[in-house]
Specification:
Number of domains: 1
GO biological process, one term: cell division
CATH class: Alpha Beta
Bound molecules: adenosine-5'-triphosphate, magnesium ion
CATH superfamily: P-loop containing nucleotide triphosphate hydrolases
Keywords: ATP-binding, Cell cycle, Cell division, Nucleotide-binding, Transport
Number of helices: 8
Number of strands: 10
CATH topology: Rossmann fold
Protein name: Cell division transporter, ATP-binding protein FtsE
Distance between the termini: 41 Å
Structural class: alpha/beta
GO molecular function, one term: ATP binding
Strand content: 25-35%
Radius of gyration: 18 Å
Shape: globular
Helix content: 25-40%
Oligomer: single chain
CATH architecture: 3-Layer(aba) Sandwich
Pfam families: ABC_tran
Length: 245
Amino acid sequence: MGLEMNDKIIRLENIVRIYQIGETQVQALRGITYSVNYSEFLAIMGPSGSGKSTLMSILGLLDRPTSGQYFLEGVDVSKLSRDEMAAIRNRKIGFVFQNFNLLSRTSALENVELPMIYSHISSKEARDRAMAALAAVGLKGWEHHRTNQLSGGQMQRVAIARALVNDPTLILADEPTGNLDSKTGAEIMDIFCRLNQERNITLIMVTHDPVIASYARRRLYLKDGQIVGEEVSQGACDRAPASGG
Ligand SMILES: Nc1ncnc2c1ncn2[C@@H]1O[C@H](COP(=O)(O)OP(=O)(O)OP(=O)(O)O)[C@@H](O)[C@H]1O
Ligand SMILES: [Mg+2]
């Protein structure tokens, strides 16, 4: 069908990303064609260097493909200007990283308010929304702690609250449990399960850990910049619905 179909949150058509380093070209992505359903929980796996983070940067509008098309909610975003990309990114996408990416000597609350600085909502509303986002990840009472006084799991919760605060349709998480022990990682996954199930946020997560990947409903495997496999099964989120939400 030639017309854009809006039943998929993401549609990738033959995405290629080539990095040029001096004389050498690195083909990080070699033609990725793939679609993601609304409210999907997708895990992306694959060996180091297979292109996972490159793909996440393109999905997050932090980078542009060398060629190919990316439709986000039916809109071709592959050729937008930087400003247009930033506007869509701020409105629709939340990010969670392995190393949390928080301002360390700043309170949890201020970190979560950060994405709202450039929006035109009042400081009162920004505060209310940040408080609510922190409560949603189980950090009520921790709002005024500096993030460098928090545990790894708590820091990742702050990062998730920050990703949530603009009410995104899509959350991208690159190795969100990579710096956490397995128990804390499972707690973080419970939060992701709830966000996916209760708020219908589409979740795309990169992980090396098969246990973490098993929470997702769908697993996509990359190798050398190409899709080499896909698995669909009931995810751990579906098997054991997160409680306490
Ligand atoms: N900014 C860059 N400049 C040049 N080459 C890059 C850049 N970013 C990534 N690459 C190269 O692109 C390829 C894919 O890298 P990418 O970071 O996407 O892999 P990955 O699957 O995320 O790996 P890991 O599991 O180690 O995080 C690698 O060969 C990498 O060296
Ligand atoms: Mg990576």
